[in-house]
């Protein structure tokens, strides 16, 4: 491998690491969302594979933060919009349908229903029930 090729390889590896870190921050919403999105936009949207996985715990965490007034309805909507159409984010295996549904609802409250404490609790309860059923299924196997 030439010096130029080696340098290009290192740049790609650094970019992928940076993208992965930013996507994890996005999923956790652990920093200013606008800053995360600006940094991700600098890296571009194209991705041939999933780099991060949105799981039920991410959504429960976001909804609990909304219920605890740490996040506003608009912040949750913006987060869901940021996550919704990214090619570099996949959804937790075996739960893609429900995760896709909740993300669509949270990202599009005018098309579905506006977020409220009742709706946030319903989604959290649904995910917790799935966890319970999944645990029981594992125990009986």
How is this structure best described in words?
The protein has six helices and two strands. The mean pLDDT is 88. The chain is mainly alpha-helical and 141 residues long. It has helices at residues 3-28, 33-43, 56-67, 73-84, 96-107, 117-140; strands at 52-54, 89-91. It has one domain. The longest helix has 26 residues, at 3-28. The protein has a two-stranded parallel sheet with strand order 1-2. The protein starts with a helix and ends with a helix.
Task: List key phrases describing it.
141 residues, mainly alpha, two-stranded parallel ribbon, 69% helix, 4% strand, globular
Strand order of the largest sheet: 1-2
Write down the overall mean pLDDT. Answer: 88
| Unreliable residue stretches | none
Biggest sheet, open or closed, and with what strands and sense? 2 strands, parallel
By oligomeric state, this entry counts as single chain
Count of helical stretches? 6
**Overall structural domain count:** 1
Q: Helical percent range?
A: 55-70%
What is the ordering of alpha helices and beta strands?
HHEHHEHH
Radius of gyration over all CA atoms, rounded: 17 Å
Q: Tell me the β content.
A: under 5%
Shape, per Cα inertia axes = globular
Helix-and-strand structural type: mainly alpha
């Amino acid at each position: 491998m030439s010096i130029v090729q080696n340098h290009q390889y290192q740049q790609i590896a650094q970019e992928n690491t940076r993208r992965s870190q930013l996507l994890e921050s996005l999923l956790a919403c652990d920093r200013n969302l606008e800053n995360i999105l600006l940094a991700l936009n600098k890296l571009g949207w194209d991705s041939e594979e999933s780099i991060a996985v949105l799981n039920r715990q991410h959504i429960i965490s976001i909804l609990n933060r909304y219920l605890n007034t740490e996040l506003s309805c608009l912040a949750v909507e913006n987060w869901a919009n940021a996550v919704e159409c990214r090619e570099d984010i996949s959804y937790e295996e075996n739960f893609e349908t429900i995760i896709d549904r909740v993300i669509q609802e949270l990202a599009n409250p005018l098309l579905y229903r506006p977020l409220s404490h009742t709706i946030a609790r319903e989604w959290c309860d649904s995910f917790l029930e799935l966890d319970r059923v999944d645990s029981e299924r594992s125990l009986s196997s």
